[in-house]
Amino acid sequence: MLIGMAVTDALVSVVMPTYNRLPYLRDSVDSVLRQTCPRWELIVVDDGSTDETAAYLSGLRDRRVHLVEHSHCGNPAQLRNIGIERAMGEYVAFLDSDDLWHARKLELQMEALRTHAGYRWSYTGYGMVDEFGNEIPIRVGGGWTPRSGSFLPELVMQRAAVPIITVLVERALLSELGRLDETLPFLDDYDLALNLMIRAEPLAVSRPLSWTREHPGRSTARRSDHHEVMALLYSRFRATVGDRRILRLCDAQCASYLASAAKGKIRRGQPREALRVAIQALGYRRLFPRGWWTVVRCLFARLRRSA
What's the pTM value of the predicted model, to 2 decimals? Predict the structure, then answer.
């Protein structure tokens, strides 16, 4: 169900998935309402929230805010795809319902894209805040300075970061990419950045204009399948590139994450599963000490259990 009138003169369509995050959602929506670039529409795709999310959004007096109600699926890529399908702007931006933007975020990115012809997408510098909105150090890639042009090797090796909340992209370019990968339970944002990078070079606005909120309900890094999903992402991405260097980097990442997944399975008392995953790691990188050591540990764990 779609609530809200179409904004036919929207320049930027902002896609925001949400689920039971009303305390943070208010701040996220406010950071869109405060944008100095007025030609936007906000498409909030509610994943079946059971709090007062729908009532709050329906009560807003801004025709640019639209609520799309959806039965709960727990799939961020699916929710973002729904938002993209309803987008009417020339550009699409993404903001998660617990994160924040600077008031000039869209204005400065649009100004940069107008000034530098030939770029089809942009991203900004970013920071992190805690659950109360206080700035905190960035956990990963804190020393990275955003730069324009291609830096795919650094992005593959996670020495560079393009958080999805920093991205502003031509809707036509998103159409060329096709739908975000809904088979990934998470990491569709990282997958999007990788696939954007191989199709068009980004224009960076180095100033921090976006903030990711760290809070107890956010992190996917604690998921037991985190490492295996990372390896799955790299294995799929490598199939889309022909550059040998990128292929080698993807193989190295697959091997590393699968080895880490195998170690986790050993700790959880799953030696047979650990051995299976460790052998997969060696399939990507045969001369891989961590992989061979993990295989040995798995074998010893199985021997101890059978003794």
Answer: 0.90
Read off the pLDDT of residues 76-87 as tens digits, 9 standing for 90 and up: 999 999 999 999
What's the Cα-to-Cα distance from 39 to each of 16, 42, 58, 115, rounded to whole Å?
Answer: 17, 10, 20, 18
CA nearest neighbour of 17 among 210, 186, 209: 186
Question: pLDDT tens digits, residue range 163-177?
Answer: 999 999 999 999 999
Q: Say which DSSP state 96 is in.
A: -
92 within a domain of the structure (yes/no):
yes
Residue 220 lies in a domain: no
Does residue 17 share a domain with residue 132? yes
The dihedrals phi and psi of 142, each to the nearest 5 degrees, come to: -60, -25
| CATH number of the domain that residue 188 is part of | 3.90.550.10
Q: Give me the domain span that covers residue 198.
A: 2-213
Strands 100-101 and 203-213: antiparallel
